[in-house]
Every structure is written in structure tokens, then in C-alpha cells.
Amino acid sequence: MNDLPPDLPRLRTLETWLSYTLARVRQQIAAAERQEQERQRGIDARPPVPDWILERGLNRASPPLAIHVGDCRMAGKRWTAVDRATALRALAEGVEACGHCRPDAELGFIDG
């Protein structure tokens, strides 16, 4: 059972079409590989996640709103990375601890 045409002109036509299709597939593969490399470069270039973040108000003069663990998804867009000592000091000064990520528990802060 042969599913290919028996004559040479149709076989040549089929060969040409398959060559064209193979070239298109190889182009798509190359494009997908470039896209994956760019995605990976983006992942590698991301800055490290901070340990603690201080969520800010609408302007620089407003007091801080909350302390979060560095990877908390509940933090707003206006935040600053802070170190452990700054996070503890902010909690001691009355800045609210995020109820979602519980930085006070992570820091070992006991409200006294």
C-alpha cells in the first residue's frame, strides 16, 4: 500500500512542498528557542526578593502603612526594601504588620 504518487512530476512537487514546510518548521523552532532564551534572561536578571518591605503611603511625607515579608503579594506598589533591624523598629513604632504574611511572627516581634 503506497500512498505516494507514482510519477516523477508529482513526487518532485511533493518534495518541494515538504522542503518548504520543513524550512518553516525550523524557523518556528528557532523563534521559539529565541523567545525561551529571552524569557530565561529576564528571569535571571530579576533583582533578588528582599527579606522585608515597608509599604509607603501616597506621598513621601505620609507615614508607612505596613511591614510585609519580602514576597508578600498583599503589598501595594509603593514599597521600600528594608533590613531586619528597620522592620523591627517600624513594628515597635506602631507600623501595622500585614495580616496576610505575618512579618511580626517571622521577625519574632512580641508587642510589649
Helices, strands, pairings?
Layout: H1 8-45, E1 52-55, E2 66-69, E3 79-82, H2 84-92, E4 96-97, H3 103-107
Parallel strand pairs: 2-4
Antiparallel strand pairs: 1-2, 1-3
Relevant terms:
12% strand, single chain, 4-stranded mixed β-sheet, 46% helix, rod-shaped, 2 domains, 112 residues, 3 helices, alpha+beta
Task: State the helicity in percent bands.
Answer: 40-55%
Structural class estimated from helices and strands: alpha+beta
Largest sheet: 4 strands, mixed
Rg value: 29 Å
Average pLDDT for all residues? 91
Strand content: 5-15%
What's the order of the H and E elements? HEEEHEH
The domain tally reads 2
Q: Any overview of this molecule?
A:
The chain has 112 residues and is of the alpha+beta class. The chain has 2 domains: 1-46; 52-107, no CATH class. Helices cover 46% and strands 12% of the residues. The protein has helices spanning 8-45, 84-92, 103-107, and strands at 52-55, 66-69, 79-82, 96-97. Strands 3-1-2-4 form a 4-stranded mixed β-sheet. The longest helix has 38 residues, at 8-45. The protein is rod-shaped and about 90 Å long. The N and C termini lie far apart (87 Å).
